[in-house]
Amino acid sequence: MLTSETTRHAGVLGSPIRHSLSPTLHVAGYEAAGLADWDYTPHEVDEGGLAPFVAGLDVMWRGLSLTMPLKVAAFDVADAVSELARRAGAINTLVRTDAGWIADNTDVYGLRAALREAGVTAPARTLVLGSGATARSAALALHELDAEQVGIAARDEAKAAALADAVPGVITGGTGPLRSWTSTGPQVVVSTVPGGAANEAVAATIDGADLEGVVLLDVVYADWPTPLARAARERGATVVSGLEMLVHQAARQFQLFTGEPAPVAAMQAAGRAALGHTPDA
Predict the structure, then answer these.
(1) What angle do CA 222, 236, 193 make, to 5 degrees?
(2) Quick check: 179 pLDDT over 50?
(3) What is the pTM of this model?
(4) pLDDT given for residue 1 in this prediction
(5) Average pLDDT of 235-262?
(6) Of the candidates 205, 192, 195, which has an alpha carbon nearest to the alpha carbon of residue 231?
(7) Which of 239, 262, 277, 274 lies closest to 114 in space, CA to CA?
(8) Catalytic pick from 71, 87, 96, 136?
């Protein structure tokens, strides 16, 4: 993509950033939408570097995607913060406007859209696995899907209780231990547990549980399917990759940055091709 004086810029910031899939998704979106005067680039930026990086951007910079460890540090550089980002306690998007940099959270949107795409509407019993920042966004997404109950199962039950207190009226299904999450009879589960050993440990808790009819979204998308995804599918669950969440949150950012409808199918295809995913993998 050629850069000129009329090129509008967007990018993703974080540390480490080299494995980010965001450039693949956004550039595919620009190409599909015919936005030849846009580019999107990755930048290695840590918490201490965020404020000077943002301050040094000229007016041709229209939007920033933020990944770890910047989702909380961004509160200090935003000129205004959306109510959703405040409730989520995390910012993953900065949009330049005439009023300055406006902060938002598109992770909630991405989770909600991915679950809707999987056929989830107004579920009765839902559960979030984990108690970190992404778990808070997941709880809000389930709440926005009109779930009757949203519960949390976490290894650290004190953190789960603190998360419930941080989003009043959202965690209506209570909190409990991660080891016994299958016994609560959830219809929809969002796992925010990271990949690797932690994911394997959660997979082991399924044991002989019957998950027929359960929809499970695992926010991990690398090295798919994860141990949890494999185990849940073997017990009858419909499994959704974290890539679908990532695509939809990026599509929302695309719209916020450019003002144009996002070509979701093109972005989805690019993400799947980059990771070697298929819809039912």
Answers:
(1) 35
(2) yes
(3) 0.93
(4) 43
(5) 97
(6) 205
(7) 239
(8) 71
Start-to-end CA distance of the chain, whole Å, equals 32
How far apart CA 264 and CA 254 sit, in angstroms, is 10
Amino acid present at 216? L
| pLDDT of 281 above 70 | no
Three-state DSSP class for 6? coil
Residues in the chain: 281
DSSP string, 191-236: E---STHHHHHHHHTTTT---TT-EEEES--TTSSPHHHHHHHHTT
* Whether 159 is catalytic: no
Residue 190: pLDDT band by 50, 70, 90 thresholds? Answer: very high
Burial class (CB in 10 A: 0-12, 13-18, 19+), 34: exposed
Greatest CA span in the chain, whole angstroms?
Answer: 61
Could you give the 3-state DSSP secondary structure of residue 244?
Answer: helix
For 276, counting Cβ atoms within 10 Å of its Cβ (0-12 exposed, 13-18 middle, 19+ buried), the class is exposed
Confidence of residue 276 (pLDDT cuts 50, 70, 90): confident
Percent of the chain with pLDDT over 70: 97
Structural tokens at position 77: 């550089």
What SS3 class is residue 125? strand
Spatial distance between the Cα atoms of 125 and 173, rounded to a whole number of angstroms? 8
Please report, as a single letter, which amino acid is at residue 263: P
- Tell me the per-residue pLDDT of 200-239, one tens digit each, with 9 for 90 and over: 999 999 988 999 999 999 999 988 999 999 999 999 999 9
Question: Rounded distance, CA 179 to CA 181, Å?
Answer: 6
The residue written with tokens 């999107």 in the block is: 40
